[in-house]
Specification:
Length: about 300
């Protein structure tokens, strides 16, 4: 694929009342995202509840995303698993179903044994075997392991590792990565709260939960940074901070899905054991969305 850049929504997975994936609602959401300023979609990300999905469900979702988007939108598939063998298998299968790149989170269950050297070998082996470009996914909040700037910089030398999504929230670490990697290596913000900072430093975009709710605002922040119109980009960044918190740290997956419902997409309930948003959570989200004119915007 071409350079991995721009703003991507880590699309939610909609479930029906029986807990099965609702592919009809998924297609409706994709049709709406296809008309936005997003560069593409991430399937099987944290916000897609990838940890709750079976192997076959993951493959079916990747195929559905590729079918539901126009050719100008890129598809990135989350393919990280605990074992190297399964990660490679899922990456190859996702490529067969139309994924343009793989977003790979590091193994994390056996934390004591997962030294930096071991993780480096894991990513190198995945990249060696992958038929599509690989992006590193640093998500210490969920994995419990932070991938250091030194490790990411070292891995950036691999010809098939083309970027990193950093969800650690440490802008110093992100700055160190940008300073140390090749100029064509894509450093992505992993949260809407620091998209502006990452882009202004030379990052190439972001994969953002809040892009499920405010895709065009997020895309505009990145576009303005490319044009060096930093004052307007900074204003939009500050405008979405509270909404971003609502759909991430404050209310989690349930909050993000509730916000999607309010925006005119279909979010629905998370898959059990995760619980749906409460009325108090929804009221908080509604207040923030109202300020931004997002209520019903994507109906």
């Amino acid at each position: 694929m071409k350079k991995v850049e721009g703003v991507f929504a880590p699309i939610a997975t909609p479930f029906g009342a029986d807990g099965a994936i609702d592919f009809g609602r998924y297609a409706e959401n994709l049709a709406k995202f296809d008309k936005t300023g997003l560069s593409g979609i991430v399937a099987l990300g944290s916000n897609g509840e990838f940890a709750m999905l079976s192997h076959q469900e993951k493959l079916d979702l990747v195929a559905a995303v590729r079918k539901g988007l126009g050719p100008d939108k890129a598809v990135i598939a989350g393919t990280g698993c605990e074992s190297l063998r399964e990660t490679i298998e899922l990456t190859k299968s996702a490529a067969d179903r139309g994924a343009d790149a793989a977003l790979v989170i590091n193994p994390c269950y056996y934390k004591r044994d997962l030294t930096e050297s071991t993780i480096e070998k894991f990513f190198a082996a995945v990249a060696d075997a992958s038929p599509i470009p690989v992006m590193i996914y640093n998500m210490p909040g969920n994995s419990g392991i932070n991938l250091s700037s030194a490790l990411v910089t070292k891995l950036s030398a691999h010809k098939n590792i083309v970027g990193v999504k950093d969800s650690g929230g440490n802008i110093v670490q992100i700055s160190e990565i940008i300073a140390g990697v090749p100029s064509d290596f894509s450093v992505f913000a992993g949260s809407g709260s620091y998209l502006f900072a990452t882009a202004a430093l030379g990052g190439r975009g972001g994969t953002l939960a809040v892009a499920n709710v405010a895709p065009d605002i997020c895309a505009e922040i990145y576009s303005l940074c490319l044009k060096k119109e930093y004052d307007e980009a900074r204003k939009l960044q500050l405008d979405i901070l509270q909404l971003n918190a609502c759909v991430t740290s404050r209310h989690g997956i349930a909050g993000m899905k509730a916000a999607m419902d309010l925006a005119g997409f279909f979010g629905g309930a998370p898959r059990l054991p995760l619980q749906p948003a409460t009325e108090a959570m929804i009221a908080d989200i509604r207040t923030q969305m109202e300020k931004l004119g997002l209520l019903g915007k994507y109906k």
